[in-house]
């Protein structure tokens, strides 16, 4: 009985796919693949993945902004913890570690920004890199 309950949704899904593909394949007004992609993409969305207005560049810039903002906030929190520590050695050490990790986070964010921009610029169509174009 359990096997029948598990197989029934699979059989129904397969039947729906087969029937719908029959009607789509015989529809003369069906869109081509690129027409379908362009129809699915909104008018305000970028068409390019790479480049100055590409999707990857936009996502990278947003994520790096968030990481940079968090690092600056953690620097401020570490400074406040250092000022408030009152000479307590464990509190001073914790505050110094917070500041150190925030600075390391900023350095990693800048290095990631440079690496990502290098990769995106080398993948962008029409980009000229220092190597040979084969």
Report on the structure:
With 134 residues, the protein is mostly helical. It folds into two domains: 2-30; 55-123. It has four helices and no strands. It is elongated. It starts with a helix and ends in an 11-residue tail after the last helix. The model is unreliable at 130-134 (pLDDT under 50).
Report the span from N to C terminus. Answer: 61 Å
Given the C-alpha coordinates, what overall shape results? elongated
What is the overall number of helices? 4
Total number of β-strand segments?
Answer: 0
- The share of residues in helices is over 70%
Low-confidence stretches: 130-134
What is the structure about, briefly put?
The protein is an all-alpha fold and 134 residues long. It has helices spanning 2-25, 33-40, 55-84, 89-123. It has 4 helices and no strands.
Write the layout of secondary structure elements.
Layout: H1 2-25, H2 33-40, H3 55-84, H4 89-123
Highlighted features:
single chain, 134 residues, 2 domains, 4 helices, 72% helix, 0% strand, elongated, disordered C terminus
